[in-house]
Amino acid sequence: MRTLLLDGVDALTALLVERASYPSVVAAVAEHTVFLHPETVAQTGGKALFPIIRYREGRIERGTDSKDAYGNPVILDDNKVPTDAFLSAAGLRRGRDVQFNHVWDGTSRDRDSYTALWNVCATPAFLAKTTDGKNFPEVRAALVYRAYELYRAKPKNAELPAKPPGYDELVWAEPPPPVGDLSGVLRDWLRSCPKSRATKSAREIGWLFSGWKPDSSLIVAR
Question: How far apart, in whole angstroms, are the C-alpha atoms of residue 187 and residue 202?
Answer without folding.
Answer: 10
